[in-house]
Amino acid sequence: LVIYNVPAGSICFDFLNWIIDAEMIRRMEGAPAPLKVHFWFGRNGKDGLYTERCKQMFEHVVKPALELVGAIEHSDAEKGRFYVTRHIREIVTQSREGIEIPKFKAPDRTIKQMRKWLGDVTPITITLREAADCEHRNSSLDAWIKFAKDLEAQGETVIFVRDTAKADEPLEGFRTCPEASRNLISRCALYDLAKANLFVANGPCELAKFGSKPYLVFMQIEPEGSAYQANTASFWKREALMDIMQNEQYPWASPQQRVIYKKDTYENICAAWEEINTNIPAAHTIPLPSNPNGKFIE
After folding, report:
1. What are the backbone angles phi and psi of residue 34, rounded to the nearest 5°?
2. Which terminal CB of the chain, N or C, has fewer other CB atoms within 10 Å?
3. How many CA atoms lie within 13 A of 116 on its CB side?
4. Residue 169: what pLDDT?
């Protein structure tokens, strides 16, 4: 039984670290499943969701994330402990000690829906960051499109997952999945069914980080003193206990799950893909359906 302090918590994709950590503690302590969570909104019951963005993140990312580890929101958890950990370092430490890290998994019903939407293809997904804030962190769209054309020329099927704000905007020549852009559970299902998932450092890559499929996450290391500290070496050393200057990876990651500490240029994408693709089983592909940007099939 755990309580999430909404006013003091991270109302964004960082919550995914919290729910993984809480589920891991449940397993370590031998407590019965499911993990039960109570969201605490301050003494007056109204604090924490101060902006429209926070409200949307809470409804569309934070609450749905419970299901990905089998957790539930439950009134019994009001009697539980305030569990305040929000950082990745505890997970890294416990993984290095040999403790198994929980994995995100979409529910069977959504897997079946996504499989029906995909048809008989095992895609490679490319998730785009196209945000108005910190634009220097956005995906290099031209590089990704060029790389995606290479993949399709090799017989692969590429599906782009656009930023939520651009979910319904088509990307000429490529298949997109608007449902995955909007819905966390559907996004996880798509990633679960993919051959590999490719990103720049952004919130959605947290799903891949605790997923079972190969991934590449491109993150250019920023100089110390940068306005965006989360991409600096000192931040990673402090918050994740990882030396990214030495190319250190998450200790639970497989050889096909890599953070690439470089800009997502076409050359860097190609080199990183060649390195992990050697050991990824070949995917069976067929031609795309005639309505590739159609509605998600319920």
Report:
1. -90, 160
2. C
3. 11
4. 97
pLDDT of 292 reads 42
Sequence-distant (6+) residues with CB within 8 A of 73 are 36, 37, 38, 39, 63, 66
Which regions in the chain score pLDDT beneath 50?
283-294, 296-298
Of 163, 97, 115, 156, nearest in space to 135 by CA: 163
Q: Residue 119 CA to chain centroid, in angstroms? A: 23
Hey, how many other C-beta atoms are within 10 angstroms of the C-beta on 68?
23
Sign of CA dihedral 211, 135, 58, 91: positive
Cβ pair 158, 152 in contact under 8 A: yes
* Whether 216 contacts 196, CB under 8 Å: yes
What would the pLDDT profile of 94-105 be if each residue is shown by its tens digit? Answer: 999 999 999 999
pLDDT at 295: 53
Residue 123 · residue 194 · CB < 8 Å = yes
